[in-house]
Amino acid sequence: MTSALFGLSNLAPEGVVQTFRTTMRRFPATVTVITACASGDQRDHGMTVTAVTSVSMEPPSLLVCLNNRTLLHELLLCRPDFIVNVLTQDQTALSDAFSGKVSPEERFGNGDWQRHENGVLYWPTAHGSSACRRVAAMPYVTHSVFLGQVGSADVSETTRPLLYENAQSWAASPGGLPG
User: Does the pTM of the predicted model rise above 0.70?
Assistant: First the structure.
């Protein structure tokens, strides 16, 4: 039904799906851990996400794309506050933990997580973090696009972000090849 709503066909020309998958695997992306919590019971949750981008500076806004079968998707629909934690080159283990290698109940057990004034946990040694409030959510086939207005942001001047390409993590190296 969603595909029909947007005038889309569920059928891609032969070979396009695999070629597109290969293309996107070769498209470097910044690694983030998006955190949120359910209101009332403070059920914290987080997930590694690479589908994050800025939208606007006035007002400061981010776009996050999430699969609609994830707990994080459910939380962002129920509660508008979330935090985008941009990981540093040294935080591959954290990325792995939040990508499913550690159970959701144990993910926040390691490290010095702190609670933001909006009630959501954030990683204070991240390369950067942006506390957001969801202002829009648009379903699209298997995913939803969430638009978050940034209420506060912080960035480290001494770290480099963790990047992900072709199933490998690496550090950004300004003006050169991956470090």
Answer: yes
Contact (Cβ atoms closer than 8 angstroms) between residue 116 and residue 83: yes
6/72 Cα distance (integer angstroms):
25
Q: Please report the sign of the dihedral spanned by the C-alpha atoms of residue 8, residue 12, residue 17, residue 23.
A: negative
19 pLDDT band (50/70/90 cuts)? Answer: confident
Q: State how far the Cα of 149 lies from the Cα of 134, in Å rounded to an integer.
A: 6
74 conformational bin, left if phi > 0, alpha if psi -120 to 50, beta if neither: alpha
Contact 132, 62 (CB under 8 A): yes
CA pair distance 51, 33, nearest whole angstrom: 11
Residue 8: is its pLDDT beyond 70? no
Q: Report the candidate in 147, 151, 152 with the shortest Cα–Cα distance to residue 64.
A: 147
